[in-house]
Amino acid sequence: FEIYASTQNANETQAVVASCLGVSANKVACKVKRLGGGFGGKESRTIPLSCIMSIAAYHQKRPVRCMLDRNEDMTISGQRNPFMGKWKVGLDENNKLVALDTELYLNAGWSSDLSVAVMERALGHIDNVYYIPNVRAVGRCCRTNIHSNTAFRGFGGPQANVIAETYMTEIAERIGMTQEEFREINFYKEGQTTHFNQELKDWHLPKGYFQLKEKANFDARKAAVEEFNKQSKWRKRGLAFIPTKYGISFTALHLNQAGAMIHIYHDGSVLLSHGGVEMGQGLHTKMIQICAEGLQIPLEMVHIVETSTDKVANASPTAASASSDLNGMAVKNACDQINERLEPYRAKGLPWKEIVHHAYFDRVNLSANGFYKVPDLGYKWGENKGQLFFYFTMGAAVSEVEVDLLTGSHTVIRSDVNMDLGRSINPSIDIGQIEGAFIQGMGWSTTEES
């Protein structure tokens, strides 16, 4: 059975379809050429449709194809989980946070889908970037009579950050301190531990925050906004400065693994396959870059094939902002295996095609199956022990917005974003991802309904 699906999760599509058909997984192959966008909505909700089509094809003994229109798609797929947060916060005499007691409620819809994992990530981000030595966080997924909500970009992180910034804003107003000053005095410092007992390493948020504050000319613009609001009756402006961190890893331990396959042909060309799905985020481009750099060959010599469960088995879903890390390391592992076999030929100073030529005639294996699992992870819920995330990305944004008080319409005058991504594999792609994420976040906070 061959399935061509628009899914972020070929492996689970294969497994569930096999279960529906009553056959073993090795008799089902799920293939994904590319997606026209995913953002989490195709992580699990595409699978029921694949099952329906497979059963129809099985009984009719002929191919079956189905494309949903937008209304059908939205009705079936669900949306981002709406959240409600209740909180109590304690401060000391220096206005430092000392305690947070919070309850988070998530609207799961009629089935659980991925809501438990969304809540787990939300509980891990309820602190945002602030050190709070005493935290009690309780999450509840609520079953309701609406469509089943599902993964959507950020996967609980943005909702928790909004709740965190709500209590930071409200407290700052209550104690008569500027929001920026209150945030700054409560930032995490290098080496401090989160409420899930993970030590912060490579913590560059304060540096990036103050760097952006200077580059965006924040203080002068804030004064200009205050002056504008004094002079304007019907139009008002606001200036927000929000930091963030995001934990990189699946909260489900077993998903933090990836595979890749490399074949080198007699003419020196390279065929690459990995378990990740290309959905416009540039994943295939990055994997080609890693392969080409690893084998020390030009990019043009590497060709990547569609994602398929009969090429790379047991792949994790392309999600959690972890696919470049996971699949990239699997590709690197495959390259390392081949490089070790080709080292005697490289030592002779031969060009690439001759290296491959001589290795082939010496009966050297020119294929490799790469694998990677993220080290050090293993958080235990309830015990609050172990490492939840491999590392954190972090950044900050300054946005100036004007609102028409008569119509309610708003205009984003300017936004500045500063993100720490480590060594970027492809800066053009990553800048595009940051800009796209910001625009999608604007949509969430202004027009998205759930």
TrEMBL record:
<dbReference type="GO" id="GO:0043546">
    <property type="term" value="F:molybdopterin cofactor binding"/>
</dbReference>
<dbReference type="GO" id="GO:0005506">
    <property type="term" value="F:iron ion binding"/>
</dbReference>
<dbReference type="GO" id="GO:0051537">
    <property type="term" value="F:2 iron, 2 sulfur cluster binding"/>
</dbReference>
<keyword id="KW-0285">Flavoprotein</keyword>
<dbReference type="GO" id="GO:0016491">
    <property type="term" value="F:oxidoreductase activity"/>
</dbReference>
<keyword id="KW-0408">Iron</keyword>
<comment type="similarity">
    <text>Belongs to the xanthine dehydrogenase family.</text>
</comment>
<keyword id="KW-0560">Oxidoreductase</keyword>
<feature type="domain" description="Aldehyde oxidase/xanthine dehydrogenase second molybdopterin binding">
    <location>
        <begin position="211"/>
        <end position="449"/>
    </location>
</feature>
<feature type="domain" description="Aldehyde oxidase/xanthine dehydrogenase first molybdopterin binding">
    <location>
        <begin position="2"/>
        <end position="187"/>
    </location>
</feature>
<keyword id="KW-0001">2Fe-2S</keyword>
<dbReference type="Pfam" id="PF02738">
    <property type="entry name" value="MoCoBD_1"/>
</dbReference>
<dbReference type="InterPro" id="IPR016208">
    <property type="entry name" value="Ald_Oxase/xanthine_DH-like"/>
</dbReference>
<dbReference type="InterPro" id="IPR019793">
    <property type="entry name" value="Peroxidases_heam-ligand_BS"/>
</dbReference>
<keyword id="KW-0411">Iron-sulfur</keyword>
<keyword id="KW-0479">Metal-binding</keyword>
<keyword id="KW-0500">Molybdenum</keyword>
<keyword id="KW-0274">FAD</keyword>
<dbReference type="Pfam" id="PF20256">
    <property type="entry name" value="MoCoBD_2"/>
</dbReference>
<dbReference type="InterPro" id="IPR008274">
    <property type="entry name" value="AldOxase/xan_DH_MoCoBD1"/>
</dbReference>
<protein>
    <submittedName>
        <fullName>Xanthine dehydrogenase</fullName>
    </submittedName>
</protein>
<dbReference type="InterPro" id="IPR037165">
    <property type="entry name" value="AldOxase/xan_DH_Mopterin-bd_sf"/>
</dbReference>
<dbReference type="InterPro" id="IPR046867">
    <property type="entry name" value="AldOxase/xan_DH_MoCoBD2"/>
</dbReference>
<dbReference type="InterPro" id="IPR022407">
    <property type="entry name" value="OxRdtase_Mopterin_BS"/>
</dbReference>
